[in-house]
Amino acid sequence: MARPLGRGIAGRADLMRRALLFPVAIAATPALAQEVTPILDARLRHEAVDQAGFAKDAHALTVRLRAGAEIRQGDFALLAEAEGTLALKERYNSSTNGRTAFPIVPDPENIEINRIQLQYRGIESTLITAGRQRIALDDQRFVGNVDWRQNEQTFDAVRVESRAIGPLAIDLTYASAARTIYGTRSPIARIDGDNIFAGVSLKLGPVNAKCFAYLIDQDTAVRRHFSSQTYGLRATTALPLGRAKLSLAASYARQSDWRDNPNRYAADYWLADAQLQFKAVGFSGGYEVLGADKGLTNTSFQTPLATLHKFQGWADKFLVTPADGIRDLYAGGSYTLVLGKAPPIRMQAIYHRFDSDRNTRRYGDEWDLQLGFRPAKRLAALIKYSNYRAASFATDTRKLWLQLDFSLASNQA
């Protein structure tokens, strides 16, 4: 059993409160501050998981708090932010608490410095960010901050974003470590490696086109099989259709092993996605393929630094791509309901059919449902449900989330 953060909920809450005061103390140094922007957001969530193969359902009632500040002085900005997660009801396997009789909900109790970064804007049309920072690229399919989980993923990195070269937008990052969602007590809390994220974007009429290269180096022994080099193209556009808007996205990438990966493989990635919005009604659909190696290796296209919850169903059954790859055919709809002066309610439903890329297997199907609204200016409420029905991969799983978010003045940079 993992050692608790403190003695009981009260002790752990007091420890979290004291830890979160650290970034605020930095911001209270008036000699440095030309402009100070506070950062404060909180999330209360109950997650229930009913998964075949477990005699007990998981019930995770957790609260997450982020607090800090950004100080601006001339061309420089210093940002410091602490993050703490407290389990109010811990009937779940957090991956570090030893409660293996329950399904996994990867939101362990944790206190850490989430971000501490220095930015410089003194070069024309260029932003340089150094330190522990949030990185979320494009749709976060390859690199993201995994904000859905209570403990955010951040990177120890140096990032340069520049529009100084004509119409090109250049985004180049070197990251020496990924700080994962699994908390400071996990053996993979920090994954070191020489990671490079590079992208060059160009606007061609209504189309935004991007070439990218993601070199992922995971030095931790149990993660070396995720080390890879990925090169690809992405294009997006938004087209007006009368009073409607059609948004399109397409992407292709080729991935192979890199650095200390013990496997030798090559696999392809494809995405075609369309969304149509007409007033309060929306329709969406797409096809995403994470391919399997066509040779003799038992390896497939992987995206270990992505915000994986956004893709291939909210039940999170495909956080690691199966050896035979995966093909995800999905379609959905949304509707925004307005009743007088009440806050608008946005309802969404998505269906997924999952198949293998190799060996013709039907993995399963999933329905995802969501209802969200804002009861007050700084509050957002969410009810979310996922139902995965297994055919030949994983097990039947149902998940329900009840969530309330509060944001005072959160810096999302």
Describe the structure concisely for a colleague.
The protein has one helix at 8-27, and strands at residues 35-51, 58-73, 76-91, 110-120, 126-133, 154-162, 169-179, 190-204, 207-216, 228-241, 244-257, 266-278, 281-290, 326-337, 345-355, 362-376, 379-390, 397-407. The protein is mainly β.
Could you explain the architecture of this structure?
With 413 residues, the protein is mainly beta. Helices cover 5% and strands 54% of the residues. The mean pLDDT is 93.
Fold topology:
Layout: H1 8-27, E1 35-51, E2 58-73, E3 76-91, E4 110-120, E5 126-133, E6 154-162, E7 169-179, E8 190-204, E9 207-216, E10 228-241, E11 244-257, E12 266-278, E13 281-290, E14 326-337, E15 345-355, E16 362-376, E17 379-390, E18 397-407
Antiparallel strand pairs: 1-2, 1-18, 2-3, 3-4, 4-5, 5-6, 6-7, 7-8, 8-9, 9-10, 10-11, 11-12, 12-13, 13-14, 14-15, 15-16, 16-17, 17-18
Strand/helix succession: HEEEEEEEEEEEEEEEEEE
Sheet/helix structural class: mainly beta
How many β-strand runs?
18
Helix content: under 10%
List keywords for this structure.
413 residues, 18 strands
